[in-house]
Hints:
Shape: globular
Distance between the termini: 71 Å
Structural class: alpha+beta
Largest sheet: 5 strands, antiparallel
Helix content: 25-40%
Amino acid sequence: MLRIIDRILIIGILILIFSPANCQVVDPVKWKMEIREGENGQSSIAFISSIEEHWHVYSTILSDDPEAFGPIPTSIEFEPNDQVEIIGVLSPISNMLTAYDPNFEMDLNFFENEAIFLQNLKCSPGVSTELRGTFNYMACDDSKCIFPDPINFSVVVEDGMFISIQEVLPQLPGEAGGNKGIVNPIHWSVSSTDLGGGSYELAYTVQCDDHWHIYSQHLEGNEGPLPTVFGVVLPEGGEAGAVTEPEPHVEYDPNFKMDLAFFEGTATFTQKITLNEPTVLRVSVDYMACDDSGCLPPNFEEFDVDLATGEVRMVMAEASESFPGGNDESSPWEWDIDVKAPLSDCNEVQHEEESQSLWTIFFLGFGGGLLALITPCVFPMIPLTVSFFTKGSKDKRKGIQRAVIYGLFILMIYFGLSLPFHIWKIDPDVLNQFSTGVGLNVTFFVIFIVFAISFFGYFEITLPNKWANKADNASNAGGLLGIFFMALTLVIVSFSCTGPILGSILAGTITQGPMPLTAGMTGFGVALGLPFALFAMFPGWLNNLPKSGGWLNTTKVVLGFAEVALAFKFLSTADLVIQTGLLKRETFFLIWTIVALLTGIYLLGFIKFPHDSKKTKLSAPRVIIALAFIGFGIYLAPGVLKKPTWEHGLLAGFPPPHSYSWYEHDTDCPLGLDCAHDLDEALEMAREKGKPVFIDFTGWGCVNCRRMEENVWIKPEVFKLLDEEFQVVSLYVDDKRDLDEAEQFNVPIKYDDGSEKVKQIRTIGDKWSTLEILQFQNSTQPLYVIVTPDGKLMNSPVGYTPDEKEYADWLKCGLEAYQQTARK
Length: 824
């Protein structure tokens, strides 16, 4: 844990030192590696450095003080390999210096000019293997430090002898991971061998591209990747044995955060078959391919094996049988659409959604930080900490500087919590499936309920006490390091109050990618750290702060009610995507109405929780806030009626759609529009009516989709256009219901390397999300597209467009383009 904290600290310091304005690339240390023969069957790997003048590299042990916190020591880590014995620890053999280091304000062990480190190894005779590892170090001069990339290395062992050591260079962009387009990294082949007596052996051989792997057949639990599964269709009287697999690698998998068995490079699986006579067998393999940065969707391949001749043919999907519409060019799957070249470029809509949404998320995080400030864990710390800095320093100016740095470290810690998410790389469509997954949303429901119970005072959610104790002890160190650990101590001890708020930020942003999460965490850190800096600069403000008291616990309880309300939002999303009918629109409104009314009743003193005072003092602000919650409950109450007294625009996107209701409606389309939920059906309706088709790629769990329907579509001008001028079709990309077996099909996909494979479409959501990606090169929702019934794109598709006029102009643009096309 302390090592991780150290790394976060160093990264934060480097961010401040090497700002974009004065950043330069420095490489003051050059390394070479070699094998050195030893005695008693041992050998050593040597890491030899050449260090530029004024720079130094730290030893494996930083100081004689075992509790010293400072730079990152030189270290070595090996990947697990049972065939090689690691003897002892990494040891320096150069002349080590010990002196005061101004960067860390302590005496440290380091090397100048040259440093040599040895690691002893031993291997049994006859063993051939490869040992991989990572060499870490840090270099500094008198004014700054660098944290170089680790040196990844590989040691080759042949017949029990250590032959060579070389650096394993990082992959270039595009070699593995990241956005690779449509790739095909796994290649299967099948062969058969006649064993005689009606017995045959099938061999399934996989060739994985560099850095890619597939998983074993035998994986524990259901929380990880899909195991590799083999299938064979046997004739009557045939028997098939189990598939035998080679010994897999078992290592920690960064994608699934667990140890997993997998195969890389080339691997062959065998299976014995017994038949009355040779025939053509249909065999299959179902697998998932991953590299260190992410996984591709599960894939399924089939082969026909002629046991009489040994001939093998890969089975490809036949469009006339398994592809909707066959070879009919009017089928949506056969459209030739170029999203960059619509028939009309009128009223091109330009959005700045990402930057706007990032600022929105930043300020939401900032608001969460302000809420955290007025919780019992944080609020009392403000005057105590500020007084410590301003009164505990002989130099008032220096005290203010230390308080400001303290606030900056709080910001850096919360910013640092988001950094690991930037390493994750996710394939298209995975984020949507992740965010609407039943398991994820039910998990968040349970977590938020637990957070609520904690806020109500029935138990505390805390991090381990030893974390806080170690951080607190480290805060006694001098200089920047001590201030950092004071900030870390605050972060840890306040977790019981800030944890649920941080959980809300995480739940709301993790499925949107790393940048929104960083924006939210940064906003939270700014709000939490800023007061310490401001009160240090203006200490007179402390006199105006309200005193700690029961109002802090009241704040926690109100936040607990908010957590309950948000919990049911996640449960609603899970319910929508599998259509259980458990939490329909009116049920959702009923629950939120009860929560709002209970919050108001609590504030008026009629409900007590464990940490509340026996007597409730009804101040004017408390009564006003209570009446506001009761008023909000009254505002929500008509939502349980078939025809509510008023629309609930303030909640657009949160409740289930109007069509997901207790009551029977004339249509299950948004706002009662005459829409379809199948594209082929919509195209036929459009031909009969002579209208263009308005395609609404939407989702049951899509908040912005509901906001568009309830805030924009409902406007008279927009509604009239949709109702009278277009044939609307709403396609739900997260619908987890299975297609009927007769409607399931396979989509041939051409990969960037020229090969072709088949994607299986098994659910309604699979069908529409795949169509959106293949035809419109987009995987976000909402996405709105206007086409003719024969598949001509009228204008550029648009996404979330909350401006009513802008959206209406876009609709008119598509309509005018269609009318011009119809007149030709």
